[in-house]
TrEMBL record, chain A:
NDH-1 shuttles electrons from NADH, via FMN and iron-sulfur (Fe-S) centers, to quinones in the respiratory chain. The immediate electron acceptor for the enzyme in this species is believed to be a menaquinone. Couples the redox reaction to proton translocation (for every two electrons transferred, four hydrogen ions are translocated across the cytoplasmic membrane), and thus conserves the redox energy in a proton gradient. Residues 31-47 have a biased composition (Gly residues). Gene3D superfamilies: NADH:ubiquinone oxidoreductase, 30kDa subunit (3.30.460.80). It is found in: Cell membrane. This is NADH-quinone oxidoreductase subunit C. PANTHER family: NADH DEHYDROGENASE [UBIQUINONE] IRON-SULFUR PROTEIN 3, MITOCHONDRIAL (PTHR10884:SF14), NADH DEHYDROGENASE UBIQUINONE IRON-SULFUR PROTEIN 3 (PTHR10884). It comes from Streptomonospora nanhaiensis. Keywords: Cell membrane, Membrane, NAD, Oxidoreductase, Quinone, Translocase, Transport. Residues 102-223 form the NADH:ubiquinone oxidoreductase 30kDa subunit domain. One of its GO terms (molecular function) is NADH dehydrogenase (quinone) (non-electrogenic) activity. It is a peripheral membrane protein. The lineage of its organism: Bacteria, Bacillati, Actinomycetota, Actinomycetes, Streptosporangiales. It catalyses: a quinone + NADH + 5 H(+)(in) = a quinol + NAD(+) + 4 H(+)(out).
TrEMBL record, chain B:
The keyword Nucleotide-binding does not apply. This is NADH-quinone oxidoreductase subunit D. Belongs to the complex I 49 kDa subunit family. The keyword Cytoplasm does not apply. HAMAP family: NDH1_NuoD. Coiled coil: none annotated. Residues 146-431 form the NADH-quinone oxidoreductase subunit D domain. PANTHER family: NADH DEHYDROGENASE [UBIQUINONE] IRON-SULFUR PROTEIN 2, MITOCHONDRIAL, NADH-UBIQUINONE OXIDOREDUCTASE 49 KDA SUBUNIT. Its EC number is 7.1.1.-.
Automatic annotation (TrEMBL), chain C:
Binds 1 [4Fe-4S] cluster. It is found in: Cell membrane. It is a peripheral membrane protein. This is NADH-quinone oxidoreductase subunit B. NDH-1 shuttles electrons from NADH, via FMN and iron-sulfur (Fe-S) centers, to quinones in the respiratory chain. The immediate electron acceptor for the enzyme in this species is believed to be a menaquinone. Couples the redox reaction to proton translocation (for every two electrons transferred, four hydrogen ions are translocated across the cytoplasmic membrane), and thus conserves the redox energy in a proton gradient. Keywords: 4Fe-4S, Cell membrane, Iron, Iron-sulfur, Membrane, Metal-binding, NAD, Quinone, Translocase, Transport. NCBIfam families: nuoB_fam, PRK06411.1. Its cofactor is [4Fe-4S] cluster. Belongs to the complex I 20 kDa subunit family. [4Fe-4S] cluster binds at residues 37-38, 103, 132. Residues 37-146 form the NADH:ubiquinone oxidoreductase-like 20kDa subunit domain. It comes from the Bacteria.
Length: 243, 431, 181
């Protein structure tokens, strides 16, 4: 690139950046003094609404990316192992060197069993489940995200299943992976996802009599009064003025 | 206090009442509440034990007494500020938390390959130092909880040596926030390499002292041999990783199987034992410390000159830090640059520090082999300057589920040994 | 001058308050109340490098019933708050509280649903020790300040008078609390 071209490009840069910025679906919630619940950082934040890659096409293995080396094999083996239940996998997502299977929730338990028991797959280790709340994703607001690790094949996959806020039920896989016991209790505690078939789905982190599920997006960050023996101390954001 | 046909609940109330009721019934079983404030439960862990005489027939674990809401709090701060929060999760392995988080953020940004070599080497060195510090505390608290005060004082004394290095490099003894997305906060200060070399010379002797004290100590052996046994299938079912898994005979180590931060370039062994008991876990931990020393030595050799933060002005922190008369702060050169010579630099600095950088929408999972096991960080971005969700898969949280499998059928004294051998840190368990 | 001049050597004069204060401060028994990161620093203070035993405090009581100092070392969660208060109630009088670290003092960086915004909402605090976590030296400084306070605590009617005075002074102070409509 000659110096002249570089200069031209540099001259266009602010305009180009401005165009890009206007084109991005940015949601700004104000600069200082953001009004989102309980936020005391003073800055309202910035969200760019963009959709993640929905459905990756085959082949999943990218010859230039060693991280994806066994993705096609895993997908084939899973398809073969599921047999006629292969429709359980709604879509497959390959992004950032990670393989994600989006699964219908009805089929989750069977899928977990196949993942653990099928000799070609052998995902011995489940590293737990966590919830993610997407209030804008109507009909699939709550996601349960599982990560599985195969020590035999040195492979790692993610399984995602969704459920709506109105019917927050997902089958429990504790019967297959006992390690998920506490992880599912935590996801229930924080997000209100009901894991059907869990042996004792009770709160784990919050006190037993807590109201609400605090890590959902519609739950404020702060502003919970302290209660002790009937006496109440008002929540921090109502105690004194910051202005 | 309640008394039913077959057990006496002593989880609260007056002991006189308990004894009176116990004498009135033929029940032998006693439910005892241990914790959350108890000197032997490794922090604010609560155990509910059903005892039949001295035998523990049922062990239930209650957690949540240190739940801090860190994961939610991070959704209200920028990606860079996130390191300040994650470092306070498992406060004995802060550098592992930071690295796991930064690896996840770097994956989302797609800059994993562009993190400077020197930054990766520093990360590895700091993590291995941290591994030793964490193992020393594991042994020290084990000693304290079983009444061996010498083990405790020795462990904390050796740990101070490592903390001195941490303080020199990061400015803090704990809660460093040193590893940042794109690299590390600042380069090693002068004298750091020398101090690490001193440590490499001194530490083998200190580890040897620990070994002499414990390896063949009959009292220690009696308290640890064949205690809290957990076999390999048990480990796999309960998701147990780290030293506990390696003490049950499987040489699984993420540093070998899924290398990160350039671990594939280091020569080290993965210590394994097939004892499956508390003693085997101790042996694995102390052998791991010796391996860590090897890795640190290789780090010093690999430490070439170069930047320690990604060369991308849109991500890398704008300011360099400098040591002034009043402590660590922004470097005067940088302040002079933004305040008097370049308006653009000032705007850039302001935007990057207050608003932060944007991370493309997506999800990423990064796992590191922490001192305690597989520490995973799952980060979700909505494209903005703050995380949409960050979740930590903490090894201590998972391992505490194994308490029942380890303790039931054993004596109540061995419950303490079992919990201490897991080495849970409640900050990581409850987050 | 006075009586002191005429005393034989080996005899010193002081007040009962000072003697009691000296006894109380010289052998404080802290209750182990380690919660989070600060607890590790508290243990480090008990270790050989910083050596809390120099101040007669190496005996960390396993039970609150044999302790007179509670060091709240770390963040207090909503779930832990009732437990903390119960332990405080179990400690015999006189008792003192050190809020170690910013989380125990004010909630610190965790201004959220899970953390009590300062342990002073639950128990009275004598010393607020800032830092995240405070260095062991800072903890020792807090301990010495508390010793000073204990040494100079008044007794009986004097104490009551002192409390009334402090209370009146606090009432006259303008508070930063504002009401929201």
């Amino acid at each position: 690139m000659s110096e002249k071209e570089r200069n031209e490009e540099a001259a266009e840069l602010p305009e180009k950046q401005g165009r890009e910025r206007l084109a991005a679906p940015v949601k700004r919630t104000g600069m200082f003094g953001g009004s989102t619940g309980g936020d005391t950082s003073g800055f309202g934040g910035l969200q760019v609404r963009g959709s993640a890659p929905a459905n990756s096409p085959r082949p999943y293995t990218d010859p230039d990316d060693p991280r994806t080396a066994d993705f096609d094999r895993v997908a084939d083996d899973l398809e073969a192992a599921l047999g006629e239940d292969a429709g359980a996998v709604e879509r497959v997502e390959v992004a950032l060197g990670e393989l994600t299977f989006h699964v219908r929730r009805e089929a989750l338990l069977e899928l977990a069993r196949v993942l653990r028991d099928d000799p070609a797959l052998r995902y011995e280790l489940c590293t737990g489940v966590t919830g993610v709340h997407f209030p804008d994703d109507t009909g699939r607001e709550l996601r349960a995200v599982y990560h599985f690790r195969s020590i035999s094949h040195n492979s790692e996959i993610r399984v995602v299943t969704t459920c709506p806020d109105a019917d927050p039920h997902v089958p429990s896989i504790v019967s297959v992976y006992p390690t998920n016991d506490w992880h599912e209790r935590e996801a229930w505690d924080f997000f209100g996802i009901v894991f059907d078939g869990h042996p004792a789905l009770t709160r784990i982190q919050m006190p037993d009599d807590w109201r609400g599920h605090p890590q959902r997006k519609d739950y404020p960050l702060g502003g919970i009064p302290v209660e002790y023996r009937g006496a109440t101390v008002p929540p921090p954001d109502e105690r004194r003025s910051y202005t | 206090m309640t008394v039913t046909e077959d057990y006496i609940d002593a989880s609260g109330g007056d002991w006189d009442d308990v004894i009176e009721k116990a004498q009135a019934t033929s029940a032998e079983r006693l439910v005892v509440n241990m914790g959350p404030q108890h000197p032997s439960t490794h922090g604010v862990l609560r155990l509910i034990l059903t005892l039949d005489g001295e035998t523990c027939t049922e062990a239930r674990v209650a957690i949540g007494y240190l739940h801090t809401g860190i994961e939610k709090n991070m959704e209200y701060r920028t990606w860079t500020q996130g390191t300040t929060f994650v470092t306070r999760m498992d406060y004995l392995t802060p550098l592992f938390n930071e690295t796991a988080y930064c690896l996840a953020v770097e994956k989302l940004l797609g800059i994993t390959e562009r993190v400077p070599e020197r930054a990766s080497v520093i990360r590895v060195m700091m993590m291995e130092l941290n591994r030793m510090a964490s193992h020393f505390v594991a042994m020290a608290t084990f000693g304290m909880e079983l009444g061996a005060t010498t083990v405790m004082t020795n462990g904390f004394r050796e740990r101070e040596m490592i903390l001195d290095i941490f303080e020199l490099v990061t400015g803090l003894r704990m809660n460093h926030a040193y590893v940042r997305p794109g690299g590390v906060a600042q380069d090693l200060p002068p004298g750091a390499v020398g101090q690490v070399r001193e440590l490499l010379k001194e530490m083998p002797k200190r580890i040897q002292i620990m070994r002499k004290l414990l390896d063949e100590n009959p009292v220690y052996l009696a308290r640890t041999k064949d205690v809290a046994y957990l076999n390999l299938p048990g480990c796999m079912a309960l998701g147990v990783t780290g030293p506990l898994l390696r003490a049950s005979g499987l040489a699984f180590d993420l540093r070998k199987s899924k290398p990160y931060c350039g671990y594939e370039g280091y020569e080290f062994d993965v210590p394994v034992s097939d004892g499956g008991d508390v003693y085997a876990r101790y042996r694995v931990r102390i052998a791991e410390m010796e391996e860590s020393l090897k890795i640190i030595e290789q780090c010093l050799d690999k430490l070439g000159p170069g930047p320690v933060m990604i060369q991308d002005a849109k991500i890398g922190w704008p300011a360099k830090l400098a040591l002034g008369p009043d402590g660590l702060g922004n470097s005067p050169d940088h302040i002079a640059h933004i305040m008097s010579s370049s308006m653009e630099a000032l705007i850039h600095h302001f935007k990057l520090v207050t608003e932060g950088f944007r991370v493309p929408a997506g999800q990423a999972y990064a796992a590191v082999e922490s001192a305690k096991g597989e520490l995973g960080c799952y980060a979700v971005s909505d494209g903005g300057t703050r995380p949409h969700r960050v979740h930590f898969r903490d090894p201590s949280f998972t391992h505490l589920q194994a308490v029942a499998a380890m303790c039931e059928g054993g004596t109540v004294a061995d419950v303490i040994a079992a919990v201490a051998s897991i080495d849970p840190v409640m900050g990581g368990v409850d987050r | 001058m006075g009586l002191e001049e005429k005393l034989p050597s080996g005899i010193a004069l002081t007040t009962v308050e000072q003697v009691v204060g000296l006894a109380r401060k010289s052998s404080m028994w802290p209750a182990t109340f380690g919660l989070a990161c600060c607890a590790i620093e508290m243990m480090a203070v008990g270790g050989p490098h910083y050596d809390l035993a120099r101040f007669g405090m190496e005996k960390f009581g396993a039970t609150p019933r044999q302790a007179d100092l509670m060091v709240v070392a770390g963040r207090v969660s909503q779930k832990m708050a009732p437990v903390l208060r119960q332990i405080y109630d179990q400690m015999p009088e006189p008792k003192w509280v050190i809020a170690m670290g910013v989380c125990a003092s004010s909630g610190g960086m965790f201004n959220n649903y899970a953390i009590v915004q300062g342990v002073d909402h639950i128990v009275p605090v004598d010393i607020y020790l800032p830092g995240c976590p405070p260095r062991p030296e800072m903890f020792l400084d807090a301990v010495l300040k508390l010793h000073d306070k204990v040494q100079n605590t008044k007794l009986g009617a004097h104490r009551e008078l002192e409390i009334t005075e402090i209370e009146e002074r606090m009432l006259r102070r303008s508070l930063p609390v504002v009401t929201r409509d």
